[in-house]
Amino acid sequence: MANPMDSHGRHAINIQVAWNRLISVVEEQAAALIRASFSPAVREAGDLGAGVFDTRGRMLAQAITGTAGHVNSMAAAVPHFLHAIPTGKMHPGDAYITNDPWMASGHLHDITIVTPAFRGGRLVGMFAATIHLIDVGGRGLTADGRHVLEEGIGIPIMPLVRSGEINADLMKIIIANTREPLLVRGDLLAVIAAGNEGIRRLLSLMEELGLDDLDALGEHIIRNSRDAMSAGIAKLRPGTYQATTTIDGYDREVTFAASVTVGTDRVDIDFAGTSPASSYGINVVLNYTKAYAHYAVKCLVAPHLPNNHGSLEPIGVSAPEGCILNVQRPSPVAARHVMGHAVPDLVIGCLHQAMPDGSIAESSMMWNPYFRGTRGFDGELRDWDAFFFNSGGMGALADRDGLSGTAFPAGVKSIPVESFEASAPMLVLRKEFRPDSGGAGKHRGGLGQIVEYRDLRGDHPVSFSALFDRVFNPSSGRDGGVAGAPGVVRLGSGARLRSKGFQDIPAGDTLVLELPGGGGYGDPFERPVRDVAADVRRGLISVAAAQEQYGVAVDDAGAPDIAATELLRQNRVRSAS
User: Fold this and answer.
1) Do the Cβ atoms of 323 and 343 come closer than 8 Å?
2) 120 Cβ contact list (under 8 Å, min separation 6)
3) Which of 66, 224, 304, 414 is the most buried (most CB within 10 A)?
């Protein structure tokens, strides 16, 4: 056994310390972005991706804060920047931008900014960040578009900052094409500042550790991460596994199909059989499909492994051109997340068959209404847009209940009600768990929420873009678990609304969202009586659901009747036989 104090042992310790410190650098990059950003989606919810890359465009580390859709698509975007702007043409103080959906994160509302880092006049790495902008013109964030050019302004890869000077002409064009110029400009400046902070921290780290470049450290990170991911894959049962899932779509149901081949050291995912592209803006570019397919594998195989180029390498993803998960230009893509967030459910459905200890039931999705009005807090007529994150229930796991009101697989946090109300002339009348929405099972699915909104004064109409799913196709259970409750979109006066597209909230009325719940896992009659009774006491399930779905008799206070419960469960066994 090597002496940990010999040169080899010291080198191993030093390089591991350097890896950990590099992760802390990107955490500081993300923290600077969050502190400086203007919009609640970035500042409060962490709707972003941030990372550091080597000079070949390979991601070495990512910030923990962020979404898989942003982070993994950002990893695929940086090589496009290197192709458009060779390293020899980069200069200290530069920053480059794009929102090209097919090069970056899938729709025009996300911008990716890359900032090169120089040490001693030599390029040593790059920082990148992806954030969601509140508005980029066009129709706004809606699935109603029929062509990508309707959905907002497109920005090819180009300099946003040249040698420390902001490209004022480009900034004017962007600001002229948004309904929220203050928020958009502030968020763009925040990303620039975050990149500069990342560079400052990186150069300090390299000086402290005596690193002239990141070459050796990068190779160590990528090699060890690739080996660790391959080792996790090797624990799965080899073979090819298929699954399908159905979601609502815009005007018709959409079927996702996948075939996952598990080898000795890699996983290959093929989405052949998936529905063709939609004529509405719910389509998904391959970058975004890959991002969430990779995430699903990592969640099951190596959840604690830092994410980087090496951890992504052993996972192959393909989808037929023209299907809804590999849409081609110029198809509309603004609401790509509504479909893309169902990709992990499908991939997990395949890998569940290869997992020795089970996985997770299907989860419900984020329900993010995008509000638009023409009257400010002061009553004066002016345009405003606002975005609010709501989360349904997470699917139950093989060994525990699903989390309630949790944005899996997106990973974003909720925007506090107070922050939302401070950014738009709206009121949130209630935001609470939705009882009986979690799918029944030995382990219960997470609960959705009930959220109700109205105009600040209650006397002015407001428009909103519905970006919701699982209204007609709820989250499925796993291994005998029951599906979660489907979602409901309605007015407070009772009228049902569509789950996608711009609609009006009439003056004096309210918008009520009843979010879907996650699927259950395992036979509900195997759930311990004490857990069912506790759910009743906490108001998570009703007395009727306890009896009908779990075979547990309880009173209104949640106290179980043991004799009645035994009879209910015995009768169920007899009827099954």
Assistant:
1) no
2) 212
3) 66
- Residue 478 DSSP class: B
Residues 6+ apart with CB under 8 A from 512: 450, 451, 452, 488, 489, 490, 491, 492
pTM for the full predicted model = 0.94
* DSSP bridge pairs for 387: 370
Confidence of residue 2 (pLDDT cuts 50, 70, 90): very low
In angstroms, the CA 495 to CA 493 distance is 6
Could you tell me the CA-to-CA distances from 439 to 38, 100, 109, 397, 517 in Å, in that order?
38, 39, 34, 12, 7
**CA separation (Å) from 382 to 47, 398, 464, 577?**
26, 51, 16, 66
For the record, the structure tokens of 12 come out as 């191993």
Which of helix, strand or coil describes residue 385? strand
Nearest CA to 279 out of 250, 254, 314, 256 is that of: 250
158: β partners:
97
E runs forming strands in 271-409: 315-318, 370-375, 381-387
Cβ-in-10-Å burial (0-12, 13-18, 19+) of 212 comes to exposed
Nearest Cα to 51, choosing from 64, 32, 69, 37?
64
